[in-house]
Amino acid sequence: xxxxxxxxxxxxxxxxxxxxxxxxxxxxxxGLNASLNEEQLIAVIIQIFSVLAFMGAGNAMxxxxxxxxxxxxxxxxxxxxxxISLEAAKKxxxxxxxxxxxxxxxxxxxxxxxxxxWWPLAVIYIAAVALMLTYDLGPETKTKGLIGNxxxxxxxxxxxxxxxATVDSITRLSFLVAGVVFFTNLAREIVKDCQDMLxxxxxxxTLPMKVGLERARMLAYVFIMGGLVCLYIPxxxxxxxxxxxxxxxxxxxxxxxxNGPLFKGEDVQVSSRIRVAMLLGLMSFILTMYL
Length: 291
Known about the structure:
Number of domains: 2
CATH topology of the largest domain: Tetracycline Repressor, domain 2
Distance between the termini: 42 Å
Structural class: mainly alpha
CATH superfamily of the largest domain: UbiA prenyltransferase
CATH architecture of the largest domain: Orthogonal Bundle
Number of strands: 0
Helix content: over 70%
Shape: globular
Largest sheet: none
Low-confidence stretches: none
Strand content: under 5%
Number of helices: 14
């Protein structure tokens, strides 16, 4: 693989895209009680690539907008290190958007062909595009603190509902799992802003700048607790039984033990552990459905 290809892949931030690749099929499985037929599996695979292209485009757009910040905070990324030119990055974003939209349209067409409801898939996609464009281009919510954190977290959580819409099966469980993803990712975004506060000066006005590092970290922990509430409800009120909550022990333990690292200001560690907890929680939901 050439250096240029590796740089373009890095521009898409593949580590962040792993969660997206997992959450589309998970969203479909949550809606269908962990059962997909062959046609539904094909539809889900198509939308996995749609979401991957969407996320890749968004991450690349973010790097384009943050090129000046990243020159100080993350100098090894493709644009600050000049492994990719700004013009090449912009063309790459256009290609990714075209791929993503085309695959979404294919998914909507397949739903129509099977007499299923297609419009939730399109509505969720369009809403995510609107959030993405307003985040990076205008009014640039990413520069406005908490509202930007909320926007990006809504986009991440929407992937669960998008996966369910792919097979025309959005359920209460889908919304609760999306709630887990929303609150935990929102906490992670705030912690990342704490980590990058010095580098963001003059470019963004983030929550830690407004309320201070300590209060921002406290609020992040509150949102983590919100994610735990959403995780708990399906085991309390159904469709799962309360005893199955034990399967969520790894994710719960990772999240509730973050107060110490947050108090100490260990933002890098906290951000990484929140991502791990999200993956553990989603996989435990699937395990619950199969047991």
